[in-house]
Specification:
11 helices, eight-stranded parallel β-sheet, single chain, 10 strands
Length: 356
């Protein structure tokens, strides 16, 4: 990996970390998610809404139950991809520089579209290698070996993924459930082996329990993974207690708050969780900054459904730059720290390591 050392692998080739600019570390540009992991129970009495058209009159219900509305979950095809492309153009106009695209095996990623977006917008796109949760996989995949999964990841990073010559620049998002499925454990171990060899960045989707992130890091590091080159996603729906969050942050991974723009307290994927608001996310980040973890925070929106795109009445990919950053400044997070969170931390994470 000498040619990649110190550089970031995008879908258009290697770039210097300094070329990334403002970076969203967890987004999706296209996927066709059909597994049971995206089929939560629709509340009794609301079944009639699942097949309704995507129109303004239904938007309030869709925001409340986004995974129950069938059309909302169609995040592929020409109409959606045009909406995504237009949104990324706005992101560029508003100062955006790069996006980490987290769609992995099991979610039907579209690397050709990622490349098209990058060419037409000038935004760097970094594609993800590896596997999403067990519930998104075919049965033929689940029983493969650690060595098999490691070989797939290496090929996606070094040669190209999904039948293309387009190389991934990060492993992940690696999907984990709670409790952890044996398949997911093997994928984590495989990623640890690959990362120890290639010194590449890794990003992980934890199960929906506050104990999940710590368990994941233990398995991952025992297999050779490095916390200092790893992002733990979705902490804003996983760890809510300040002391528990600080304890996890002390383990050394990047802490990602990636659900910015979701302002509905009901979290359909886990009824026991009260989804925080953007203001609460900022408060959690401020707490980490005050305790000295400003070098280990990254942020994003995790857009993966229609209703969060601008064309469909959503906040779009520019929401953090236009609305969240001013709120962060207003709440006492300095521009210097914001630049760390949106520019320097992602660049440090995404660059292939040169230190060993």
């Amino acid at each position: 990996m000498e040619t990649s050392s110190g550089k970031v692998q995008t879908v258009l080739g290697l770039v210097e970390p300094s070329a990334l600019g403002y970076t969203l570390t967890h987004e999706h540009l296209s996927h066709c998610a059909t597994g049971k992991c995206f089929q939560p129970t629709t509340p009794p009495g609301y079944e009639k809404y699942t097949d309704t058209p995507y129109i303004l009159e239904n938007l309030g219900w869709i925001r409340q139950y986004p995974y129950s509305h069938k059309e909302n979950m169609i995040f592929c095809g020409s109409d959606v991809q045009q909406a995504v492309l237009d949104d990324i153009k706005l992101f560029k106009l508003n100062g955006g520089g790069s996006i980490v695209e987290n769609t992995t095996n099991g979610l039907n990623r579209d690397l050709d579209f990622m490349q098209k977006v990058s060419v037409e917008t000038g935004v760097n796109i970094i594609a993800g290698a590896g596997y999403y949760v067990a519930g998104a996989q075919s049965t033929s995949i689940l029983d493969n070996s650690i060595e098999y999964f490691a070989d797939v990841m290496k090929r996606e990073l070094l040669e190209g993924a999904s039948g293309t010559t387009i190389k991934c620049g990060v492993i992940g998002e690696l999907g984990c459930s709670w409790p952890l499925h044996d398949f997911e454990k093997k994928v984590l171990q495989a990623a640890g082996l690959v990362q120890s060899e290639l010194k590449c960045p890794v990003i992980i989707h934890p199960g929906r329990d506050e104990n999940a992130p710590q368990e994941i890091l233990q398995i991952f590091t025992e297999a050779g993974g490095r916390v200092d080159k790893t992002v733990m996603s979705h902490l804003d729906r996983t760890i809510f207690d300040r002391s528990t969050l600080l304890e996890f942050a002390s383990m050394g991974s990047y802490c990602e708050f990636d659900l910015f723009g979701i302002e509905v307290s009901h979290y359909q994927m886990s009824s026991k969780v009260d989804m925080p608001s953007d203001a609460q996310r900022i408060s959690l980040i401020l707490g980490l900054v005050e305790e000295g973890f400003e070098d280990k925070v990254v942020i994003a929106h995790d857009i993966h459904t229609k209703h969060r795109l601008t064309k469909y009445g959503g906040h779009g990919f520019s929401h953090i730059l236009l609305n969240v950053v001013p709120k962060m400044l207003n709440r006492g997070i300095s521009q210097t720290v914001i630049d760390k969170i949106l520019v320097h931390n992602p660049a440090q994470w995404l660059a292939y390591d040169t230190s060993c």
